Amino acid sequence: MGVIKGKTDNFGFPLWEIQLEGGKLVTEARYRFDIISEPDRTVTHPLEHDSPPHVPDELLYLFEPELNEVDKTPNEAPVNVSAPPQAPTQKPSSKASKPRQFVPVDESTVEQFVKDQENQGTARKNISDMRTLTQFLQQKNEKREIYKIPPEELNSLLCQYFFSVRKTDGEEYEPSSLRGMMCSFDRILRSNDYGYELSKSVEFAKTRDVLTAKQIALKKMGKGNGDKRAETLTDDDIEAMFKTGQLGLSNPTTLLHTLWFFNTIYFGLRGVTEHYQMTWGDVQLCKDSKSQEYLQMNERNTKTRTGANLKNTREIPQRAWATTDQTKCPVAAYKLYKSKRPTKYSKPEDPFYIQENNNPDKSALWFKAQRIGINKLGKFMKKMALNTGNKIL
């Protein structure tokens, strides 16, 4: 309850001076109290009045201190103040998001994970090249790890290394081999947070100059012409392997060679590691709308498609269609292999290539539940070529 004592204007809006029952004067821009205009007049019901004009929010803060002070005045008679409407309480969503799941991990686990995904060929090359460099450093009475040698000293040592390094038989390396050594050393330094790069840092500019000069000199000597590349198989070479029994369906060894050959030709498997990592579930026997059978490869990481580049994928699945010539049919070879290998060792996660049975004539199964080693797989082509009597490698 209050009494209007005066009125002023502020930016076009009326301000009301109101004396509360306790005697305190307040200034209000809106009616928030039951008021009377004359001191001697008593009212028993609230005074009805028109709604005041809307006051912008940026002006309301000017009056908040006085209003807060009114609420905190001690020993003052209760004031009939209408509370501003409260916003409706928002009900919690019935579709509450589930908490994320995270596997416990530490730094050593992360480092081991990265190491496990590294290309095994690259890892072996790192070890081989570092072994050669370590032999050189020992001759220089240098026992520190390369990532513990200051850049200026390491630069000088590498210059000498690339100038003098030879094979065990005294022959010069190929230019690409020297460049590969540089990459191996760079990977070792980077993995140990060395802080400098052999291929970019100015501290190793002389090392790069020596390597370039060495490559030019080797090129003048006839090195680097790729004369050790394998020869391409011709149709006559392939026909010769079928005629001599190196390819076909007649026995366990020949069948394995044939499957390896078809997987290479139709599915584009290049390195021995890709064959070795194949599982039985990677190849599926399918039919098209005309009931024509074909094999489809579920490609994982390969030599050229490792998975690091998500865009580097095949748009069309790899397929090997059935042919009328059963001796050269990939589907026929797959079906025979399926029937001749142990059922208990034909789960999707089991190895694709398994060992031949020592006594296939005494068993319906030609193969046993044992994986073929990577070295044996790597010699399939060489073995077939030698037995054919044609130097196609």
TrEMBL record:
Residues 239-384 form the ZMYM2-like/QRICH1 C-terminal domain. Signal peptide: none annotated. Residues 72-103 are annotated as: Disordered. Keywords: Isopeptide bond, Phosphoprotein, Ubl conjugation. InterPro entries: KIAA1958 (IPR042838), ZMYM2-like_C (IPR021893). The keyword Phosphoprotein applies. PANTHER family: HYPOTHETICAL PROTEIN MGC115716 (PTHR46963:SF4), SIMILAR TO RIKEN CDNA E130308A19 (PTHR46963). This is ZMYM2-like/QRICH1 C-terminal domain-containing protein.
